Amino acid sequence: MKKKKIVIAGGTGFIGKYLAGKFEVMDYEVLIISRNVTHINWEDEKGMIDALENSDMLINLAGKSVDCRYTQKNKKEILLSRTGTTVKLGEAILRCKNPPVLWINSGTATIYRHAEDRPMTETKGEIGKGFSVDVATAWEKTFFSFKLPKTRMVVLRMAIVLGKNGGVINPLTNLVRFGLGGKQGKGTQMFSWIHIVDLYNIIRFIQSQNQLEGIFNCAAPNPVDNKTFMTSLRQKMNIGIGLPSAEWLLNIGAYFINTETELILKSRWVTPERLILSGFCFEYPTIDDALTNIIEKREDVDFKPAY
User: Fold this and answer.
1) What are the pLDDT digits (tens) for 69-117?
2) Alpha-carbon Rg for the chain in angstroms
3) What CATH number should be reported for the domain holding residue 276?
4) pTM of the entire predicted model
5) pLDDT tens digit string along 274-292?
6) Which helix (H) or strand (E) holds 32?
7) Does 304 fall in a domain?
8) CA atoms of 155 and 141, how far apart (whole Å)
9) Is the pLDDT of residue 298 over 50?
10) Residues with Cβ < 8 Å from 63, sequence gap 6 or more?
11) Domain span at residue 136?
């Protein structure tokens, strides 16, 4: 019997590698679209169409990392790496005789305004302002500009993804080890996050629920402020003291390590209203649950169906 097929675009990073491994264990054929010479290339239109033909799902994670200085050159690359790849995928789907059943496009929780007063939901969230928000809105507009009657379309507005082998955990644990694991800035900015196991579970849940489409906040239901997060991380690592980092110091540090303080100082208070109302159950609903798994346990977590 022919294997079910999933295509992951931009699947060479931390999230893409994890998802590919999980789906391969589920006995899916997983095809990757990337700039890596061993995968289907973005310029190979026929290769993309062949990959998407008769596929069960397309997951698009493509996009230049925002962990950089916002120079004009980088801004252009950040935007085009998202909107341009989305256009290529949409046009390829339009040329398929039997297109993907489901297209999940990554988005970002950064699309909402800086919020310390209340959580942002899909129905009551307020769109923010600035470069990152402009990118996020253009990305979603590009995605939803395609009318694909045979393909269900979903955007996941992802919060910070936490997991064992990549993402933000590595640099944050290094800060804690060097005694710099205190609050960052005022420490009151909210930190919305999602465990990578729950991200996978969410994708599987949406795949299984044929009525679900549109925009979903992809975040755990219990965000915490920055001070609480850093305190929890220190506790899990058994390190009692962490020096705080003032905003002025973060600005200087960001310049020297070629990044922006927005990644740390923006308050992302995002909750997954639609997922909860749809019946999704989180395996890691609290930051204590998530960090216990990531920091204290060495073994990986087997997939447990969330539906």
Assistant:
1) 889 999 999 999 999 999 999 999 999 999 999 999 999 999 999 999 9
2) 19
3) 3.40.50.720
4) 0.93
5) 999 999 999 999 999 999 9
6) strand 29-34
7) no
8) 11
9) no
10) 10, 78, 81, 82, 85, 106, 139
11) 5-296
